[in-house]
Automatic annotation (TrEMBL):
Name this polypeptide is given: Protein ras-2
Alphabetized SMART domains for the sequence: RAB, RAN, RAS, RHO
Family the entry assigns: Belongs to the small GTPase superfamily. Ras family.
This protein's UniProt keywords: GTP-binding, Lipoprotein, Methylation, Nucleotide-binding, Prenylation
GO MF annotations in UniProt: GTP binding; GTPase activity
Gene3D superfamilies, sorted: P-loop containing nucleotide triphosphate hydrolases
GO CC field: plasma membrane
Species the sequence originates in: Thielaviopsis punctulata
GO biological process assignments: signal transduction
The UniProt record lists the keyword Cell membrane: no
SUPFAM superfamilies per the UniProt record, alphabetical: P-loop containing nucleoside triphosphate hydrolases (SSF52540)
Ranges annotated as biased composition (Pro residues): 118-131
PANTHER family: RAS, DI-RAS, AND RHEB FAMILY MEMBERS OF SMALL GTPASE SUPERFAMILY
Length: 235
């Protein structure tokens, strides 16, 4: 039985020329773009089935140039999960990954602290969930031009607390994995957030503890209230 279609908003970030557009078009259109045409902002939608669940992916392909930093803030606000791309044949694109990652964290933290409504006093504020990020070392087919090792990619991913994969948009290697694993994390977070708070057991435990006798004796079975002893004084 097919479930309802769920929308996931993904944003692809990284330096110019690392293959962000090539990865996005390979995912959405199953086609490899040979020529480099700098992107400012392109949006794609694709219906997929991930782990037997239908999904609608909205993938935003963005500009990597420095002059679009202000626009990037808005792209990050609108996004839910992020694919951070560098080229294994470009050391400088790898070095700039931290800058993109820090911008994601800054914008998302700003969004979480600017809520219009204060938290309910009955429910203390929950810490924000980590932003799902996939680090992608693209152009893994360029073996002879490699400037960034696989081990360096893994080390940076551990430092940033995100997943990592090397991919090739040209050979369609790990393209789906790069995007689908972000969707899986978003889905897990949504399912966790939709669970009702476990308050019933706490109330029951509190009620039980309040019925314990003060003198340390065992409570009577099936007794709702604790019986108090009375003394009679004759004058």
């Amino acid at each position: 039985m097919a479930g309802r279609m769920v929308l996931y908003k993904l944003v692809v970030l990284g330096d110019g020329g690392v293959g962000k557009t090539a990865l996005t078009i390979q995912l959405c259109l199953q086609h490899f773009v040979e020529t480099y045409d700098p992107t400012i902002e392109d949006s794609y939608r694709k219906q997929v089935v991930i782990d037997s669940q239908p999904c609608m992916l909205e993938v935003l392909d963005t500009a990597g140039q420095e002059e679009y930093t202000a626009l990037r803030d808005q792209w990050i606000r609108d996004g839910e999960g992020f694919v951070l791309v560098y080229s294994i044949s470009s050391r400088s694109s790898f070095t700039r990954i931290r800058k993109f990652y820090n911008q994601i964290q800054r914008v998302k933290e700003s969004c979480s602290t600017s809520s219009s409504y204060p938290p309910s006093p009955a429910q203390p504020p929950q810490p924000p969930l980590p932003v799902p990020v996939m680090l992608v070392g693209n152009k893994s087919d360029r073996v002879t031009e490699r400037e960034v090792s696989t081990q360096e990619g893994h080390a940076l991913a551990r430092e940033l607390g995100c997943d990592f994969v090397e991919a090739s948009a040209k050979n369609c290697v790990n393209v789906e994995k790069a995007f689908y694993d972000v969707v899986r994390k978003l889905r897990d977070q949504r399912q966790h957030a939709s669970r009702p708070p476990q308050q019933t057991n706490n109330r029951q435990n509190t009620a039980k503890s309040s019925r314990q006798p003060l003198n340390g004796g065992a409570p009577e079975a099936n007794s709702r209230y604790y019986r108090q002893k009375h003394r009679c004084v004759v004058l």
